[in-house]
Amino acid sequence: MNSAAESRKDLPSGAVGESLVTANRRGRTTTRLNEINARFAQLAGEARLPVLDLGCAFGVAAHAALAAGATVIANDIDPLHLEETARNAPPGTSDRLRLAPGAFPAGLDFDDGSLALVHASNLLNFLKGEEIDAGFASIFRWLAPGGRFLSMSGSPYSANIRGFIPAYEANVAAGLDWPGECHDLHARSDDPTIAELPDFLHLLDPAVLSRSAREAGLEVEEAQFFNRAGTPDYIALDGRENVVFVARKPLL
């Protein structure tokens, strides 16, 4: 499935190949579906309840879910992202698109059990550990029984941030709860893409996400490092550049 953004001729300024620099300088967002986006869109098309796209950026995943027939709540902290998401939504889907501005998790609230799916690509990397814990607790409440959370996140094993790997591995060895919290990213890398990111970045791994989700009551279905299709050269390192994470709210 192709995203609506792929066919657009009016992409926001900052387009770099198949990615866009986000308006709020939180890295880049893809202009085509990655594996997690596509899975979200497929499941969204089968959902009977609304689905939530956290940190939707310019709407690549939200547009695909709308095209699949879902009712989509698109969230982002940047009004420009939401404006673009609404403006470029697939024709005839505006009545199924709801915009939800605000920071996750503290700035959002939905009825308990009101969502079939929650999706977040490259959002959790901008949250501190306690915010991830709070986020999973909220997601557990918002999801209907059997509902899923799907995410893709950046790991420490990326070429442009390889300078942080020794610190991360030392933190793991020391038993820190959140070994991937990096508070001085700009001092650890001189790669040009680092200027597109804030100084705090949370590089995640399957273990910490699994622990946090389980503590919130979610069942972990998939948690692993992976190399997504089309990984940019500036990220490509050893096949562990990203973390795919899928969890489910128990039926009972």
Describe this structure in words.
The chain is an alpha/beta fold. 26% of the residues lie in helices and 24% in strands. The protein is built from seven helices and twelve strands. It has helices at residues 35-45, 60-67, 79-87, 129-142, 165-173, 185-188, 206-215; strands spanning 15-16, 19-21, 28-30, 51-54, 72-76, 97-101, 115-121, 143-154, 181-182, 201-202, 219-226, 242-248. Strands 6-5-4-7-8-12-11 form a seven-stranded mixed β-sheet, sandwiched between helices. A three-stranded antiparallel β-sheet has the order 1-2-3, with no helix packed on it. Strand 4, helix 2 and strand 5 form a beta-alpha-beta unit. Helix 1 packs parallel to helix 2 (60-67).
Which structural category do the helix and sheet elements fall into? Answer: alpha/beta
The average pLDDT value, as a whole number, equals 89
- Distinct helical segment count: 7
Quaternary organisation: single chain
How much helix, percentage-wise, in residues?
Answer: 25-40%
What is the topological layout?
Blueprint: E1 15-16, E2 19-21, E3 28-30, H1 35-45, E4 51-54, H2 60-67, E5 72-76, H3 79-87, E6 97-101, E7 115-121, H4 129-142, E8 143-154, H5 165-173, E9 181-182, H6 185-188, E10 201-202, H7 206-215, E11 219-226, E12 242-248
Parallel strand pairs: 4-5, 4-7, 5-6, 7-8
Antiparallel strand pairs: 1-2, 2-3, 8-12, 9-10, 11-12
Helix pairs in contact: 1-2, 4-7
